# Entry
Amino acid sequence: MELPANKRILSGMRSSNPRLHIGNYEGALRNWVDLQNQGYDMYCMVADLHALTTMYEEPGEVSRNAREVAKDYIAAGIDPAKSAVFVQSHVREHSELHLLFSMMTPLGWLERVPTYKEKQEDLGAAEREPYGLLGYPVLQTVDILLYKPYGVPVGRDQAPHLEIGNDIALRFNRLYGKDVFTPYKYMIPEDESRAKVPGLDMRKMSKSYDNCIYLSDTEDQTAARIKSAFTTPTKIKKDDPGVPEGCAVCQYLRLYSKDWETQWDEDRQGLRGCMQNKKELTEALNEYLRPMRERRAALDDATIEDILRDGAARATERAAATMAEVRDAMGMF
Ligand code: ADP
# Structure
């Protein structure tokens, strides 16, 4: 496939947890690795400032988590020699452009974002809800536009934020009369089973629901998590018919087992039980994750610091060039 003239891609994950799960991998990270290997110019960010919206009382943990998330990127196949792996707060331009965008983004655009309401509920009492939570999509827009990417590979849940980003880009150009920003593409996996991976309980897989399978779990932890997974509730005995579409184990078989079509057929017809599905999934998933675990084990903290320093330098170069254009368009600095 021919690559576009602008081959830059930006994406990131929050460091609100030290470990990424297979939902993060299927929805986003797996695409990053594919795009990198196709020759795209990747900027893989760890969003530590974003994590502060829910963890502002624990900045040390956010920072430690950031190193662990970077390890997961590399374990999953991001090659720091090809792709810039960096931490958001190491590139100061994110904070500066966030301030400027927050002055020109209408409040109504932000109040309508569905994830804002959800996150508000997660935080509980209104007094705990920080000002930055409402501005989350503005900071995310900054993260993207500073790199002027061709596209942004993310899971389905991110689509509303990405729409606001393109609206802010066009608004900026219109307000200041210069085409500084060009709209970017959203790169959401076409396969719905990857765009929104179910959790062990069949809700969306999310660290806040504690229903995840983590990339860096040990083989035994993966086996134990799969044991606890939700299956067809009406399939009590081995020969009761299953409904693979509503069974977490079958959903994961589809992602990781070469024989998933046969497995689904047999499940539907009551020719196999949930125990067999779980056993075969454990084997397939552990085999899939093994090279990632090996790469992760080989990464020490000093190597990660070097990678992040180099990534931040590469990212700063791009971000600073964009900021110079922004200041020039606004003509007041
Ligand atoms: P944030 O959106 O704050 O970064 P996450 O850590 O939940 O939060 O998401 C990081 C990336 O992983 C995003 O691209 C998101 O769309 C993707 N993602 C998260 N959960 C899932 C899931 N269950 N299925 C598919 N993609 C997911």
Q: What stands out?
A: Strands lie at 8-14, 41-47, 84-87, 151-153, 185-187. Residues 301-330 form the longest helix (30 residues). The chain has two domains: 8-196+301-330, 217-295.
